[in-house]
Predict the 3D structure of the following.
Amino acid sequence: MAYAFGASSESIIHELVFSSSTSWVPPYSCRAYVTVIGPGGSGGSCVEGGDHEAYVASGGGAGGCAKSLLRLDSSVTYTINIGAGGASVNNAAGNAGGANSEFQGSDIDNMAGNLGSGGLKEGNAGTISLKAGGAGGTATGGTIFNCTGGAGGSGEVVTYSNAGIHIASGGGGVAGIFGKSYRGGNAICNTGGAGKVALGGGAGVGGNGGDATSTGSYGFAGAGGGNAFGDGISHTTVYPNQGNMFDTSSLIRSISCNDWDEAGFSAYEQTSV
């Protein structure tokens, strides 16, 4: 992604967004803020195949971001290359972004937002060591800043119990469009017990994704995403077997889990709070 803000005077009068590769000639010579954002990698995907298993997927890394204040000349043709984001996957490790994004011209220092890496995945009947999220891409050529993209969140199953399923999924990172990037939330199932789920939050432009930690049996930990003003809310659950799946203080209804189906998300009994 490339942005150009330009004017023939000192005020910003145009904002242009280029979402595909092209050649571009400014309609007039101007000063312009140019932001180049590299493509992010896709997150890993791990498909549940049965009971008594553990599944982990980590988030994709964001692309790098470069920003400059440039003098653009109406007699120069500028080349804009836009890299595609990493293709989504099904039961596979994530893909890196397709190519770097670039803004080039004969009269400027070329700018590049480099691609982010894809997340990882693993599924088996046992513990799963930490699967790091995809690394963020670097950036070059910016005169205001060059910001490496936020890393994807990790996933990990520290302790495995041969009962139910254990799921840990990290959130995606975010590009540093304001000069600082943020990571995706990490997810961990860190004690024994049946039927645990931990879902890290995605990063926002002003904060990290929240971290999720699931402990005990039938604990569902879903963290919040980052936003423009701060980190997402992290969440830890500690529930014994036959306990409540959600924090009843913040929900109108809770689910009392006597058993879970093979997908690990549906309870057979519901009771009012």
